[in-house]
Design goal:
Radius of gyration: 19 Å
Order of helices and strands: HHHHHHHHHHHH
Oligomer: single chain
Number of strands: 0
Length: 303
């Protein structure tokens, strides 16, 4: 009995740590979205993505020096790591940016709310990790929270909403991130979160650099100290801290369990807008936030 209680306590502690890690990741990504929008006239999206992963790859390389030798080389899981590189590093951000050329940030946020359900389906199909009833219920509650958060709790928003080709591309972006999380879950059965994150960045970086060279010829950089400081921050915090925290959370909660908390991204964006941009925080933000966080906590409960 004592051994079972000890194991249960360890599982609960692991889940709590996982919840904290994925929320840390989404918080850093909320700052990334705000900065990315602020820099949109100074640097192209492909160049920004290449810059952040170049900085992150250098940090990952230094961190990997402290890991065992087997962690510093590709093994039998190399193709899974290549899949992580293509989905989460090379394709996800450009696909999301492309979607935002045709649709609104609001529409993209709504579609991102379906990420947990898409990821749960992918996890069940690809790695036989079924989505529990708690996770399904939490994902649905989180979607309602997002709808309240961005609509302001009024029907006027829905009467004015329009959907277009950009929304289909947004679904593609969400699916790519779901695949990245599912593949990461599979890779991290035998690797640390650091090794999985690092090698996916290493393998995805060359394609991003080629794309950045092409983009700079069409969208020249508007260099300034603020630009370089912002790129350094994005490379260190949202990319190194955020990606490591996310993958470590996936390792503890599973791909489906971690994705439920992906819905906290618009919530943290609203909080940051209130703190730094003077935006108003009203009852829809509070109600939506409670549903998003509550749904995530419910999903994290053990059967």
């Amino acid at each position: 009995m004592a051994a079972e209680d000890g194991q249960r306590a360890l599982r609960q502690t692991s889940s709590l740590v996982g919840i904290g890690l994925v929320n840390l990741a989404t918080l850093t990504w909320a700052t990334n979205m705000a900065l990315g929008r602020w820099l949109r006239a100074d640097i192209g999206p492909l160049t920004l993505a290449a810059s952040r992963f170049l900085i992150a790859s250098l940090i990952y390389a230094l961190l990997l020096q402290r890991r065992p030798v087997e962690e510093r080389r590709l093994g039998a899981d190399r193709w899974l790591v290549v899949g992580m590189a293509l989905t989460g590093v090379t394709l996800f951000a450009p696909t999301l940016y492309l979607a935002l050329r045709f649709t609104t940030a609001v529409n993209a946020t709504i579609i991102n709310g379906f990420g947990p359900l898409i990821t749960g389906l992918l996890a069940a199909l690809l790695i036989r990790e079924p989505m529990s009833r708690n996770q399904l219920a939490g994902a649905v509650v989180g979607i309602f929270g997002i709808l309240i958060l961005i609509s302001g709790g009024t029907l006027t928003f829905w009467r004015a909403a329009h959907f277009n080709i950009g929304d289909l591309i947004s679904i593609g972006a969400v699916t790519l991130w779901g695949l990245y999380s599912v593949l990461g879950r599979r890779v991290m059965r035998h690797r640390s979160a650091l090794a999985a994150t690092a090698f996916s960045a290493f393998l995805g970086l060359p394609l991003l650099l080629i794309a950045a060279i092409w983009e700079i010829q069409r969208l020249p950089l508007q260099t300034s100290p603020a630009l370089f400081a912002s790129i350094l921050y994005i490379g260190l915090v949202p990319t190194v801290v955020g990606f490591l925290a996310w993958n470590a959370g996936v390792q503890r909660l599973g791909a489906s369990g971690a994705m439920v908390f992906y819905n906290t991204l618009p919530l943290y964006g609203a909080v940051l807008g209130t703190l730094f941009l003077g935006e108003t925080l009203g009852w829809p933000h509070l109600a939506g936030g409670l549903l998003i966080v509550g749904g995530g906590l419910w999903a994290a409960r053990r059967r």
